Amino acid sequence: MAGDYVIRVALGNGQHVNFNMKSAQQGTITGLTLKYNETYVAHGATTTAPTVKWVDAAGVGRDATKTDLTWSLSDATYGSLATDGKFTATTNDKKLGKVTVTAIDTSRNVVASFDLTVGSPPATLALVAKDAVTEVSKAATVTAKLLNSEGDAVGFGTDSSYTRAMTVSILSKPAGAMVSTTQPNATDVNNGLERTGTVDFTVTSDTAGDVVVQVIVDNADTSSATSRKYYAKSITLSFGAPKPPKTIQGAQSVTMFVGARGFVADGVGKTVDFAPFIENGRTFVPVRFLAESFGAAADWRRMLLSKWSP
Questions:
Q1: Is 28 exposed, middle or buried (0-12, 13-18, 19+ CB in 10 A)?
Q2: What's the sign of the alpha-carbon dihedral 140, 141, 144, 150?
Q3: 133 in helix, strand or coil?
Q4: Which end of the chain has the least Cβ crowding within 10 Å, N or C?
Q5: Residues 295, 226: Cα–Cα separation, whole Å
Q6: Measured over all CA atoms, what is the biggest interatomic distance in the chain, rounded to whole angstroms?
Q7: What is the pLDDT of residues 257-269, one digit of tens each?
């Protein structure tokens, strides 16, 4: 059934985690989306199959049947396409640049495109912080990007004879500060460096001031002990004092009337969707409007429960 759901997974020790899920019924298809895991393809390499979805005007999508689509390249000299959208780059090492893959659904008159960079390998490493200043004890998000000579973010490409790794080190920090870093697991780092050339990591400091972080990307050929290339870059992250808490100013007094949708908040007349009523000796009031009148935030969630047997 369409709607917003919260699925809770609980452990025997009482700990749990919630997953938010939205379900919607798709309407008339008005568009097509196309996405590859990779943005860079080495000469002679082949991408994974792309994700292609039909979408309606509200953005609700479902997987398209790739073999029912028509596939094309902006320049066929850069490579070839399979019926499921996999792209294989040419072995001609003189072909360097971008090629656009286009998927067309002729029966629905919808089209989507995606740009791939062919044979232009990473030349340098860049680090980009999400925010100019991060609040103390909050995580500063940094994106490590491999760039080619044209400044485009590119990956190393998939090659089982290579392993890729990333090391994050703290070069300097405020006196007495406790600084920590987190990054994805080794598999996710390797996939990110191969496919898109981007990996996110975070840095946290409990003291205001500047933290200097160095990142080293290691591209190692496992078939040769001497074939190894390093990319290094540093970035200065600024941490500031905590922001003052937001004060929500609500009404000082609220008066509701049984059987009437009108109510008074600090002398100002307002209306609610449902009138208070009395049933079986109990008075029922629309708690959301009452709470919001006093400055509180109200939210509603539906819990999805299911029965199962092992």
A1: exposed
A2: negative
A3: strand
A4: C
A5: 65
A6: 85
A7: 777 777 777 777 7
